[in-house]
Write a structure and sequence with these properties.
Elements lengths: L4 E5 L3 H12 L4 E5 L10 H4 L9 E4 L2 E4 L1 H12 L12 H30 L5 H22 L12 H10 L13 H11 L2 H6 L9 H16 L8
Parallel strand pairs: 1-2
Antiparallel strand pairs: 1-3, 3-4
Helix pairs in contact: 1-3, 1-6, 4-5, 4-6, 4-9, 5-7
Organism: Oidiodendron maius (strain Zn)
Pfam families: GST_C, GST_N
Protein name: Glutathione S-transferase
Length: about 240
Amino acid sequence: MAHNLTLYTSGTTNGWKASITLEELGLAYHAQAIDIFKNVQKESWFLEINPNGKIPALKDGDQRVFESGAIMLYLVDRYDKDNTISYPHGCNEYYEMLSWLMFHVSGLGPMQGQVNHFRCFASVRSDYAIDRCTDEIKRLYSVLESRLSSHDYLVGNKYTIADIANFCVVRVAWILELNLDEFPAVKRWVDRIEAREAVKIGVMVPASAMSTDKLVEMFGAMKAKIDSMQNSDKH
């Protein structure tokens, strides 16, 4: 099937969801790096692609798709005819897959984003916010742990976009000082997915994406800055 795919992205957990899906499907695509630190995603040309001003966004010819979950669903609906990382629409497993994808989209992804903000990016330090969000993340990880204790993957022991979406945030649990040894089934699942060739390529998209070592260094400096602040909850 002819296609003309351009992924507008940055080396973030949301960006990885789209690039890994593209790599797993073996699709040819152009990755256009978006410098989110310079707010390129807020420029008028980009807002024509994603009115929400966030990465990732996808153009497939004249078709635009934005929001990472929608991009993943679009790609498997249109291009995964053999259901290599999905299930046929309408079957029981399809709706189970959709449920775990929404678990990520509505819960795990946004909550981990909140923890990352208060732990690394906030202009004031709030121990209450950090502790509250971290406790909720641990609860969500325990949900994954319960499922993965009896399944290799989230749906029917088959690797799907539901795994990709949740994996992309769990793989950077170290930002929150979370030790995956507390969640052994989750850790085995992360290691299993991390070893996939398409995943190794996808997490380095776009070409300007930082290596894990660079990310550790950058987030370490950010957390040190927050740690040096007085707790604003006491004011």
